[in-house]
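User: I'm putting together a teaching handout on how multi-component assemblies are represented. Below are the sequence lines for each component of a complex, exactly as they appear in our records. Could you produce the 3D structure of the whole assembly as structure tokens, so the students can see both representations side by side? Please keep the chain order the same as the input.
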Amino acid sequence: MEATYDADEHTVRATGDARQRFYDSRGYGRPRGDGLELAPVEAAHLLHRGDLEAVVANGRELGFREFLALTGVVLGFVVYKDLRDRGFYLSPADRSPPAAGDDGSDAGADSVSDDAGDVDFVVYPRGSGPWDDEVQHRVRVVGERESVPADGLGDVVLAVVDEDGDLTYFEMAKRPPTGSLDRDPPSELSGTLLANRVLVWDPPEALYETQFYGQRLYGRNADAGPLQLSLLEAAALARQGALTVTAADGSPTDGVDSLVARGRAVEGERFDRRLDAYTALRDAGGVPKSGFKFGADFRVYESFTSVSELSHSDSLVRVVTADHTFFPRDLSLDVRLAGGVRKRMVFALTDANDGVDWLSVARLTP
Amino acid sequence: MEATYDADEHTVRATGDARQRFYDSRGYGRPRGDGLELAPVEAAHLLHRGDLEAVVANGRELGFREFLALTGVVLGFVVYKDLRDRGFYLSPADRSPPAAGDDGSDAGADSVSDDAGDVDFVVYPRGSGPWDDEVQHRVRVVGERESVPADGLGDVVLAVVDEDGDLTYFEMAKRPPTGSLDRDPPSELSGTLLANRVLVWDPPEALYETQFYGQRLYGRNADAGPLQLSLLEAAALARQGALTVTAADGSPTDGVDSLVARGRAVEGERFDRRLDAYTALRDAGGVPKSGFKFGADFRVYESFTSVSELSHSDSLVRVVTADHTFFPRDLSLDVRLAGGVRKRMVFALTDANDGVDWLSVARLTP
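Assistant: Of course. Below is the structure of the complete assembly, with chains in the same order as your input.
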């Protein structure tokens, strides 16, 4: 068998019994005519295993080390090897074989690309391979310090190679919010705008107890007394016409507009985005409360009956812009924390008033 | 007893038996002559309890609600009440009584100030009060969306009032790094600079096993083979003269300079700051490795003997600029995660080459 590297096509072409030995029995490469085309990362893996002794490039015989130095596919190799070690067959995505019976098509570009929506590897279910039709994961490889635009992320697994060369997998999926609360909040409420909250001095019991708006001014253990509403809660209630807000001196305010203005004064347009996400979460029947203790915008109770029967919240929501860019390390922080408290980590992508896209991210052990 | 609000001095003056009832027996206010001066937040607390029936301002008698609206000390009240509920006596910081026997001094400014290095409350040990000399906590009150300059933070507790009005306390302390590793790393190493790592093809066993530099190229479970060093590890070793680095094509590089240039290309000056912190951690005998899985710069093993006897790491380090500004929510995220995995959260403040200040932050339940 001979294996030759074609630098222009970023491809290794192997002849002889390569197709039988590597593709038919172990899912490497893609058949072309009598031979086999291997992506650099596949050839590197075969070299590392000793299944290939050398790859010829520019008339020289390269071993694993020289081949890796020549092609530079270090990140890709680390991920490819890890998934092989875990018992998966996988193909570089733009080289994944076409449907059965169709052998020919264009040779792909470099297997590990940094284009936004790209997938680097197609991973088949354990026991399956490129000759089957089923796909288990679409994997995108990123370095710890690369940024990943949120736009276009959906049904994909991010494989992050960290600074030390360790791997973390994040499974991303679109997932709209849900919830079980279907009662309308009390109406005809009135409150006073003080600092960054609205104080409701004589709230109806239902506002807190069965709707979970606000927090007792006299602390968590108080079972009565004034409620402090956050600006978001107050703005959402005011927008529904359920709440009238006066200023500290008792004079009337412009309601929603005054609340939004107060919110923007502190955090700019972020307030609008958060109000957008808050409203969508409430509309879906969820109960969003401050996610501060988890470093998020909201914690959300999806199956809420009353405050006295409160169980743990189900998800953490971070609100970001629609054109948000993820940094793998920030993602790792959010997802690790959420996992540690058994909540789902959800990103709300919104530019406010344009609707919200929901992206849920979880750590995956393939 | 009569209590009168002086708006210019932000002070309530109470006469009659106020000193006896409020100061002597329960640590409110500070004696002035025969009477008692109360900060607005103290007067609000007394009004809320019904211990004061009203405060006179501009000839009108105000109850709790009107007094809170007039003075706006909502955040301060929430924190003051919480600490009182937990069994502490406390004084607004700039009003804390002087040493015993000295009753007079200037009246303070507003009790909850937003100056950088400010402390809002001085909290006495349980069972003690303003008439004693001991201080348990110096507390600074901040809203969830305020920023807190790192400069000047040290022996202070941040009390963060979140959007919902819930409270979280963070204890901050200066704490230089420590560690038990006192061996020098192997020298006369050579490696190849590939992508963002340096591959050492035939590493001495000690480099990984007893010094924990690098990661096996063949994955975590490999017990031999090439090591991949991070750029930080390689730069630190090269700076000690222990490592020579060649380019992918085998040509020589400029050593440290080439590595630092490669690091800067990806993350700018942040690389220098991280190298600074990495070096200081190693110098102190700690073993810093990537903190990626925890969303931090480093996880640090402070009592390290060998990789095969590795226990859990002790702290997580995030590297920030010397003029860094904390956002309470980010702080909450870091500290919560670290707490969940039982590690200390440490911030390394550095501008590179100017030394490093170390600030450790933990959640506190007073």
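A couple of points students might notice: The longest strand of chain B covers residues 356-364. Chain B touches chain A through 64 residues (CB under 8 Å).
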